[in-house]
Amino acid sequence: MDETTEVELHGGPLDGQRVPVLLEDDDPWIAVISDHGTYPGGRSLYAPDPEGVWRWVRDLRHDEL
To answer: Taking a C-beta distance cutoff of 8 angstroms, is the pair 46, 53 a contact?
Structure first.
């Protein structure tokens, strides 16, 4: 079974929201469905910075994944 942890998102439209992420994910990005970003109904992309803080990268249209 995959282990998860909750991380807090920083910056962007989902600032302060907490989401689960897989601990052993080799590609540690997360695209969260968001109606508050540039593209309502699209996703907001977050990734950990070098210090491990999950920061907003950009918004994605619903058809970009």
So the answer is: no
The answer to whether the beta carbons of residues 32 and 19 sit under 8 Å apart is: yes
Q: How confident is the model over 6-57, as pLDDT tens digits?
A: 999 999 999 999 999 987 877 889 999 998 889 988 999 999 999 999 999 9
Name the token pair of 5.
């942890």
**DSSP labels for 1-65?**
---EEEEEEESSTTTT-EEEEETT-SS--EEEEESSSSSTTEEEEEEE-TTS-EEEEEEE-TT--
Q: Hey, what are 29's tokens? A: 């990005």
Structure tokens at 22: 């897989």
Q: Which has the closest alpha carbon to 57: 4, 13, 1?
A: 13
